[in-house]
Amino acid sequence: MKLNFKIWRQDNSQVVGDFKNYEVSGLNEDMSLLEALDYLNEDLVKKDEKAVAFDHDCREGICGQCGFFINGRAHGAGNNQTTCQVHLRSFKDNDTVLLEPFRASSFPIVKDLIVDRSSFDRIIQKGGFVSANTGTAVEANSILIGKKDADYSMSMAACIGCGACVATCKNASAALFTSAKINHLNSLPQGQPEEYSRTINLVAQMEAEGFGHCSFTGACEIECPEHISLSSIAKMNFSYMKAKILN
Ligand code: FES
C-alpha cells in the first residue's frame, strides 16, 4: 500500500512552518497511522533528515497523549476515536493524507505535529482534586454513593485531555474539557465541600488561558473519544451560576 503524506513541518513556535510531501510505499493496511509515521521516520533518519515529531504514549486510546488533524478532522474521519486508533485500512491505496497540528492559540506548536497542552494542566491545578488536609484518605467503601452518581462521575472522569474538543471548536473553547473535570468531582460526596471554589476557579483559569467561549455548535462531542456530551457543559454553566450566587 502506498500513501502520499502531506505533513506540517515546523521546528518551533517562533519560526514559520510549511507542508512537506512524503511518498511512503510498502505500508500494510493493518498498520496504525502512527506506525506508518514510525516507518516514515526510520527512512528519514537513514537519509539523515529530521524525523517527524508527533506525540504518543499508550497507542491504545487511553492516555490522550496523541492528537493531530488528519485530513482536516481532529483524530481523523471516524467519530469518537483517538489518533492512535486510526488504521491505514481507513484510507485507499495512493490516497493523500494531510496531517497538521491542533490549531488553537492556547495550544502553541512545540514542533511539527506536537502542541503544548499544558494549559489543560493549569486548569486542573485550580481545583481538579479533592483536599484531604489531615490523616489518611477515608476508606472508600465507607462513603455510600448511588450508582447513578457513580456512573455519571466515571463518565466524566473518562476525559483523557487529548484536546480534540478545543482543536475542532471554531471558538477554540475548552468548555467540554473543563466541564468534565468539574462534573467529575462535583457529582461525588467527596467533591462537594470544594464544589463552589472548584467551579469558579477552573472556569476562571480556562478564561485566563485564552480559550474561547462555547457557542453550543456541538463539534466537540462528535470528536471526543470518550463520548462526553454537550449536556456536560450545560451542567457546568448551571453549577457556575449556583456557585456565583451561593459562594
Ligand atoms: S497514544 Fe494514548 S490515547 Fe493515543
Please give a structural write-up.
With 247 residues, this protein is an alpha+beta fold. It folds into 2 domains: 109 residues, Roll (Ubiquitin-like (UB roll)), CATH 3.10.20; 129 residues, Alpha-helical ferredoxin (Fumarate Reductase Iron-sulfur Protein, Chain B, domain 2). The protein contains 8 helices and 7 strands; from the N terminus they run ββαβββββααααααα. A 5-stranded mixed sheet has the order 2-1-5-3-4. A two-stranded antiparallel sheet has the order 6-7. Helix 6 packs across helix 8. The chain is elongated and about 60 Å long. The relative contact order is 0.14. The model has no long low-confidence stretch (mean pLDDT 96). The structure holds FE2/S2 (inorganic) cluster (FES).
Bound molecules: FE2/S2 (inorganic) cluster
Name of the CATH first level of the largest domain: Mainly Alpha
> Low-confidence segments, ≥5 residues, pLDDT <50?
none
Helical residues, percent: 25-40%
Head-to-tail CA distance between termini:
60 Å
CATH topology of the largest domain: Fumarate Reductase Iron-sulfur Protein, Chain B, domain 2
Rounded radius of gyration (Å): 20 Å
Strand order of the largest sheet: 2-1-5-3-4
The chain-level mean pLDDT equals 96
